[in-house]
Amino acid sequence: MEKHHQFSLWYFVLALAALFAAHALVSAPQIETLDYSDFKKLVKEHGVVEVEIGTAILSGKVRSQALATLLPAEKAARLERDKDGLRRFATVRVDDPNLAAELEAAGVRFAGRYENTWLKSVLGWVVPIILFLLIWSFLLKRITAGAGGLMSIGRSKAKVYVEKSTGVTFKDVAGIEEAKAELEEVVLFLRSPERFRRLGGKIPKGVLLVGPPGTGKTLLAKAVAGEASVPFFSLSGSEFVEMFVGVGAARVRDLFQQAQTKAPCIIFIDELDALGKVRALNPMGGHDERDQTLNQLLVEMDGFSTEAGVIILAATNRPEILDPALLRPGRFDRHVLVDRPDLLGRQQILEVHAQPITLGPDVDFRALAGITPGFVGADLANVVNEAALLAARKEKPAVAMADFEEAIERIVAGLEKKSRRLNEQEKRTVAYHESGHALAASAVRHADPVQKVSIIPRGIAALGYTLQRPTEDRFLMSKSELLDKLAVLLGGRCAEEIVFNEISTGAQNDLQRATDLARSMVAEYGMSEHLGIVTYERQRSPFLPVDGWGTTRQEYSEETARAIDAEVRELLDTAHLRVLDLLRKRRELLDTMAEHLLQYEDISGAELQAILKKSRALGEGDGHEPAA
Ligand code: ADP
Ligand code: MG
Ligand code: ZN
């Protein structure tokens, strides 16, 4: 590529030189052979026969004898001899108004000559234009060099991996069993689509892998391709976003065209968020490049049918910034959570990566998994590699436990900034906090069932989480349902209060959400007995600025504001007492759950049911609080 550029530069220099040469030839000035003063002398002495007066040059013929008598020999010799014994001369014209009169007086034949200068003037403006064009195209080539030159701007750079060439199978992916199971289904779709179509079912179009960085999303996608033995088009979202408007869209179009000719196949868009960010509500009405690319992707996804056997996989670690249009049914409607691995998962991942490594007899992956909470697959791969390098440096025959421990220490130091590592006390606090949420959710009547409880740290804010999944879509919620929701939100903090007789800062987000909910109940839904069925907050149009430059107008008096505050307070206080009571009655269950969490780091929905059932069998009540 670089070579080509130099070549074209040389080309350009040559062209310039040629132009100058042509210019010089066309307008070659006659060489001066006579000084103007000598010419005047010759005129006076009647030595000049004829003169041609050009715009810049006077030329003509002189007599040889006059020349010989008037000028020194070496000057005369410069004049070229003519066939009729005369000599030709040329001199540069000097501003001399009397020249014509003098020539006439001396009886010299003279004539004016018009020099044609069009070529000169044409060259005068053509050359700069050519120069400009050359420089411009040179720069353009430079800019688009990364895109494979000017001609291939619109073509996609999708790499095609055919059949075994990804070399990755499900065996290489460990510790994320649920995600794996969902993708195994996708492989089945690709292998025997008839089986699923037989009953009229539709094969999913898009599957979105969601999870923190390094958890193995890219690896999973490759494994799907490896297992299904189909072509695998892989492209990163950022590769779609180009500096020229329209190029990304052209690339999307090209990618889908390519894919359709290779069906059945998989299109994998890594880092979907780079391309699928929420389209800007641009007040100027402008479309930027990314919007166009995203629109094209939506169009293409709608345009092809899964009959063709093309399945689109995408991965992102920031699903919250994706444009909702991408997540609509018929697009990426299947979401697969690729979560941080739990204890067992980490152990399995370590084992997978340790396969090619010579291990010492004392290596215990279970113990190593225990000291690496919050590590993702990529971190664990790194641990194994680092340990192997450490052992090699010390010229040991095998990698020992101590090497692994040292490697973990190192990586932890690097991760410290990224993700929190909890000490034992903090871990206990989080375990009880999350158990509190989960227990409250299982005790109240109207809460969504708990899907998963986890104390694997993720990010900076959340130290653990309790995942509830609604069993049905809800459009209306009754007051008692909202009260139950409030109870679940307060569950974490109440558990901390009961167990440690102390409150940590970990509940801040819960309290905020609980307060917001209580305030909505009072001020928006008219659910307060004292304030009555009045709405104090207006629904604002989403197009009007709310917290930008406009301030929200308060539509009630100070007094009402105070009443609302008091009412919110009372709602929260009541809920607080209710949850405290509810958890105190289930203290043993709370301890069981927290212990389980401390040991395994997470509780699945099924495990939770089992724990609850066991306690019920022991005669600790039916789980639910008695109806009020
Ligand atoms: P992501 O795309 O989610 O950011 P990658 O798939 O690129 O993560 O993972 C990076 C590397 O970490 C992989 O190449 C693999 O070596 C290792 N890795 C991550 N997750 C796993 C896993 N579940 N099992 C085995 N190895 C993993
Ligand atoms: Mg990735
Ligand atoms: Zn909480």
Q: Can you characterise this structure?
A:
With 628 residues, this protein is an alpha/beta fold. It folds into 4 domains: 8-143, 2-Layer Sandwich (Signal recognition particle alu RNA binding heterodimer, srp9/1), CATH 3.30.720; 159-337, Rossmann fold (3-Layer(aba) Sandwich), CATH 3.40.50.300; 343-413, Helicase, Ruva Protein, domain 3, CATH 1.10.8; 424-617, Peptidase M41 (Methane Monooxygenase Hydroxylase, Chain G, domain 1). It is built from 22 helices and 14 strands. It has helices at residues 2-26, 36-44, 64-70, 73-76, 99-105, 118-144, 177-191, 193-197, 217-228, 247-261, 273-276, 289-303, 343-354, 365-370, 377-393, 401-415, 424-443, 479-500, 508-523, 558-585, 587-600, 605-617; strands at residues 48-53, 57-63, 80-81, 86-92, 109-112, 159-161, 206-210, 232-236, 265-270, 310-316, 334-337, 450-454, 465-468, 602-604. The strands form 3 sheets. A 6-stranded mixed β-sheet has the order 6-8-9-10-7-11, sandwiched between helices. The protein has a 5-stranded mixed β-sheet with strand order 3-4-2-1-5. The chain has a 3-stranded antiparallel β-sheet with strand order 13-12-14. The longest helix has 28 residues, at 558-585. The protein is elongated, with a radius of gyration of 43 Å. Residues 146-153, 160-164 and 539-551 have low confidence and may be disordered. The structure holds adenosine-5'-diphosphate, magnesium ion and zinc ion. Adenosine-5'-diphosphate (ADP) binds next to helix 9, helix 13 and helix 15.
